[in-house]
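BUG: 3D viewer hangs when loading the predicted structure for this chain

Environment: internal workstation, default settings.
Expected: structure renders.
Actual: progress bar stalls at 90%.

Input used:
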Amino acid sequence: MICGYYCINLRPISTMLFNELRKHSKLAAKRHPMYDKNKFGKYFAYFMAVFWIGYLIFFGVTFAKGFANAAPSIEPYHVMNKGLIYVLILDFFMRFSFQKTPTQEMKPYLLLPIKRKRLIDFLLIRSGISGFNYLWLFMFVPFALLTITRFYGIAGVFTYVLGIYLLILLNNYWYLFCRTLFNENFWWLLLPVSIYGALLGVEFAFDFPFADFTMNLGEGFIDGDILYFLGVIACIALMWFINRSIILRFAYSELNKVEDTKVMTVSEYKFFERYGELGEYLRLELKMLFRNKRCKVSLRTIAIIVVFFSLILSFSDAYDGMFMKNFISIYSFVAFGTVILTQIMGFEGNYIDGLMTRKESIYTLLRAKYYFYCIMVIIPFILMIPAVVMGKLSLLGTFALAFLSIGPVYFCLFQMAVYNNKTVPLNEGVTGRQSSGTGLQNIISICSFMIPILLVYLLNALFGETVALWILLFIGIAFVATADFWIKNIYNRFMARRYRNMEGFRDTK
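Structure tokens produced before the viewer hung:
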């Protein structure tokens, strides 16, 4: 495949280069050993996309009618435009969960007579035309058709939707800028947090100046005012060039392993020595999570989401409904384990041969992982305390959901240790290919969130809230008390298919 690149005719390069790189990307995905296992996950992702599209269309119609009734003195599209800043903030933080930074295996192409900036431009184009950028339009298009058509006709709807798309595209490149910096250094998280915090502070302290600005901006889009469009396009171009510069810099830093030349003082976690072999594997887990880029980025991202949800639940009335309270609570407890445990043994695939040289090392490794992620539940438990103090959650409910997470939910997640046979790169970032999980991983990940919610609702309907929480607490404690037995069972099943798994780990390194 790489040799074919030498045949690229560089005469009319732009369109042809884009098509060639896109073709190579598709071929690489099809030739990946896990391609067949990813098919189900893709079909399920399509199903979920259709579901959310219908949900957003429903919101668009509802807002059109609701705003007309709630504020009859002004037009509904003025109300919507006043809230554009909040839509963009929500879109920004949603991308941490659903959108990864665009990646491409750049290393082979850097040896060819192709301008490096063109490779980065390809990544940015791919990010700009990704389906996520069109998702919000399924809410704005029906809203605009119901509210704008009667005054401005279809032309007003078209220019308004085009303006909204440009804002979302700008938000995409702003997210890409922040996420790239955040992947390199955790403290860059303070950049968007401080900006959004200052923005909201000014908004509430000075009688919503940004709401007036976005209302006028939306009005300019509806009127088709070229100056408003040119202003947004200029901001997009600026973010494009900034992103090109930092991605190129970090890509070369990663390819040249610049960070390996730095001498750092690192913790050896010597306090684990008192626990013998189990302590050694606890130390190994900590080193894997905190010294490898891919693991660190996953944990940082999920930490942002959990803290964000916890703050909203504790200090806002937006999610006071029973479903959202249960969802946020369960998500907070399960998230830290799920982000790693759905790929359990995948990270260890990088050094699986070393692990297999010692008798029952996999069993001790699985026990260490379970104890470690049980301890990690303390973090969301502490974050839930303000919600308990505010009366949003009960202390019994918090304990019940915590034990439900480390009990039956972790029991299901640990089953993936038997079936995962794909090595997950530890340090690939900008230059690595980020592939989706297998179908089984996607199913287990979604079920780990949805089944506990359904179980809570079912038990509440049958026995009432208090009795239901006691039942959930008992179920969770039962799974925790028998953890050594089912971990031993998982270990025995893993060893029964160890050669098949080891072959898969080696093939995907």
